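Researcher: Please predict.
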Amino acid sequence: MSEPMQIKDRIERNRQELRRLAENHGMQDNKVLEQSMVLDELINEYYRFQYKKRYMKRQPTA
């Protein structure tokens, strides 16, 4: 499995966990906030990987 797919799988698992925590504890609970921050970082990691992949494919303009 490629790295972006692994990250996407981790994002989906963490999104489901966030949903579960929010349903069980409410949106204002610290557990929900912490899980949201974990999910945000995974999403950022995915976008950094995608940006780096595109940046490396670019051809010099000169």
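Model: The mean pLDDT is 90.
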